[in-house]
Amino acid sequence: MGHAPVQEPVQESVEQAMTTHSGLAAWVEEIAKLTQPDTIHWVDGSEREYAELADELVASGTFTRVNPELFPNSFAAFSDPVDVARVEGRTFICSEKQRDAGFTNNWMEPSKMKEILDDRFAGSMRGRTMYVIPFVMGPLDAPDPKYGVEITDSAYVVTSMRIMARIGTDVLRQMELSNAFFVPALHSVGAPLAPGEKDVAWPCNEEKWIVHFPEERSIFSYGSGYGGNALLGKKCFALRIASVMARDEGWLAEHMLILKLISPENRSYHVAAAFPSACGKTNLALLEPTIPGWKAETLGDDINWMRFGKEGELRAVNPEAGLFGVAPGTGWSTNPNAMAAIAKGNSIFTNVALTDDGGVWWEGMTEEVPAHLTDWQGNSWTPDSGRPAAHPNSRFCTPIDQVDMLSSEYYAPEGVEINAILFGGRRKTTVPLVTQARDWTHGIFMGSTLSSETTAAATGAVGVVRRDPMAMLPFIGYDAGDYLKHWIDLSAQANQARLPKIFLVNWFRRTSSGGFAWPGFGENSRVLKWVVERLEGTADAVETPIGFTPAPGSLDLSGLEVSASDMADALKVDPAEWEQELQGIEQWYARFGDSLPADMAAELEDLKQRFAA
Ligand code: GTP
Ligand code: SPV
Ligand code: MN
Fold first, then answer.
1. Are strands 314-317 and 304-308 parallel, antiparallel or unpaired?
2. How far apart are the CA of 65 and the centre of ligand 1, in A?
3. How far is the CA of 462 from the centre of ligand 1 (A)?
4. What is the CATH class of 323-402?
5. What ipTM was estimated for this complex?
6. CB of 326 sitting under 6 A from ligand 1
7. pLDDT digits (tens, 9 = 90+) for 557-592
8. Cα–Cα distance, 103 to 99 (Å, whole number)
9. Which residues of the sequence carry a binding annotation for Mn(2+) (predicted)?
10. Domain boundaries in the chain?
11. Was domain 253-322+408-612 assigned CATH 3.90.228.20?
């Protein structure tokens, strides 16, 4: 590697060989030589280590200890204003051939990218500690555990990874037994310290690189300390790299929640739902049903790994161990289950506001707005400040086992059988509250043409409608057309009678006066009830050109105060809106070029025909 001259062995622990895993030992040594940290810390994942790191983060000003009487063992961090969300424009899939990255990804020739990365990482950890975090995505007792090792110079990343994934010595020891393959994931905030230089509270670099080498199954992240840019087990591994593994090994890595529903008759169903970032997955995953007799249990809120089981049934596992949820809008009235999990403590909050009694607050947490706060940028804030107190992409990071409604099946390596898949987006117009696909292939078409208004979860403009296939636009680690083909081909393995039914949903449609047509949140249980009754064959539907929508009276609205005109707005299929939508879909499909599967082109033709008829 052409960069800074190689110095003395960085420090003793390299030589002490903290692992018998030869590949890992060699990689750690190589990275230490490259990045030149002061010390190396092998993360054991213990509570004691977490407490020590948290104390150090408090001392360095990265963490503010939250009032333990309000949120025990919890901390608040405030990022640099240039580092508040995923950076899609700086995210790359460096496959050997550009064609294999497809039109949805940034690409650079791998050897050229490696030169850039070598240059940026050279000496990037000077003055800092290099942490080595062994982790596994999914249960450690899975038949084929998916290991990774993140090397990072951020203690904030270590503490967050301990919440979000299974990490530490147990994982390392098991990896060593078989000298197992692991995904190497290198992260640096890109802010080396000169001798004696004082650190800042949130070190980062204005230049950011989030890079994946899919054939090598490796990840390099430089310059950001935030969320999906830095917690590399999450989007980088469990979606971008895992989607490539899934293509090669015959499974699916999806941006989906997993929810169990139990009917009043005690029948159980499992639903997976793909919504783009900040479009309602965590909220639906922690649903508090408003209809009597129905119960819900959580399995996952962001990532879902699915494969066909022995009987041709589709089985789902959540590879994560925590929630990294959007704070604004999460409140005692909208999402009491999330709030109860957060209130148990053991959480890291990023870019929320602080109350005068040392608690945290964000827009929508309570109906009453505090008279005074310290906003996420450290400024004094009052309700008439005219700006949000918490950043719109502020987050809570909380262990999933603090969710009271967590299903015991969350721990099962074999996962749960999925009965229904929902695709959904944030659309003010056009897309009805719920539409059932005509069949599996039509359902894939619905997923492939999913659209949503952009949110604060990624940097860039907010509120712009874009196509987001299966809510995976920023996360497909290979060619988008090949990805659709993989969905189509994989279902050949299915027991056709047990294929999940597919639905398109939209909680975000507006009425002509601008408000939400549908109350959402817990009331979404009414839509899920209709979905279940469609599975059972008991709910009536109207056939429309875009699929089956609820027949009048088939959606349970008992006890709900929603006007007939709002309901009509929520459910309507407006041919004028769809004329525009069809043009949008055509333009979208044109971008796939040759890689658009013929089945999808045929679905579009059929849809146009149904509107013309
Ligand atoms: P990521 O973690 O970024 O992948 O987001 P997510 O899909 O888990 O979204 P989340 O559930 O955190 O919701 C994002 C925002 O949408 C929050 O501000 C919620 O309050 C809001 N939201 C969620 N569900 C509903 C709903 O049914 N109706 C309305 N109006 N808003 C909702
Ligand atoms: C998303 O953006 O979809 C998230 C947050 O879940 S992040 O971890 O930053 O990707
Ligand atoms: Mn997400």
1. antiparallel
2. 27
3. 14
4. mainly beta
5. 0.99
6. yes
7. 999 999 999 999 999 999 999 999 999 999 999 999
8. 8
9. 235, 255, 302
10. 22-61+87-249, 253-322+408-612, 323-402
11. yes
